[in-house]
Amino acid sequence: MTSTTPSSTVTEKAATTAVPLNDLLAHRWSSRAFDPQHELSEPQVSALLEAARWAPSASNTQPWRFVVARRGTAEFDAVLDTLAGGNQVWARHASALLVVAAQGTDRPWALYDTGQSVALLSVQAGHEGLAAHQMGGFDRERLQAALPDGVTPLVVVALVRRSEHTRLPEPFAGRETAGRERLPLEQLMLSLRLPTAS
User: Which residues form the signal peptide (predicted)?
Assistant: First the structure.
């Protein structure tokens, strides 16, 4: 798998939205076609983590914690080895694997707040011309054992530049070119069950 594709030529899959959205949101999607030669710069890593750091959290508890494992390091190999087999096929070409963990998961909003930090990081990744593919398919017990006490791993994020020239095996190749879909808004809306007047 090789690629020398500049980010400006990578196929974009803009969402078809009900109303116009910010371009960073409309163009965010989870690519698996990675440029295996790409390396994250220190300013990019700092920008991603800084975006995550400024996420809102309940009572400013800031429960998010991160491990940045760069390709070519023992840390990267250790994280990669905990991923589900299907994820390993393409995630091994990421520039870095970011382990996202939460501290104090006994607090009711720690998981929600940590998710918000990843959301902001993913938007910053788009601004940096990067893909940020979030993965829940990993061995939590093994990754937990490699982390400091008191934190719980929630997701691993592959960070890299996309490449339209990367060849993926099926079913991943088909997923890369498939259209993007979301449920219509009306299916997402709920009604409150209000008490009836006596």
Answer: none
Tokens of 169: 């095996």
pLDDT tens digits, one per residue of 133-178? 999 999 999 999 999 999 999 999 999 887 676 776 677 666 777 7
Number of Cβ atoms within 10 Å of the Cβ of 155: 17
- In the chain, the number of structural domains is 1
Q: What is the pTM of this model?
A: 0.84
**Helix or strand (DSSP H, E) at 134:** strand 131-135
Assess if residue 12 is contained within a domain: no
Which burial class, exposed, middle or buried, applies to 194 when counting CB atoms under 10 A from its CB (0-12, 13-18, 19+)? exposed
Look up the CATH number of the domain holding residue 47: 3.40.109.10
**Helical H segments across the chain, by residue range:** 23-26, 42-53, 74-82, 85-91, 110-127, 140-146, 172-177, 185-188
Residue 104's domain comprises 38-162
Contact between 7 and 125 under an 8 Å Cβ cutoff? The reply is no
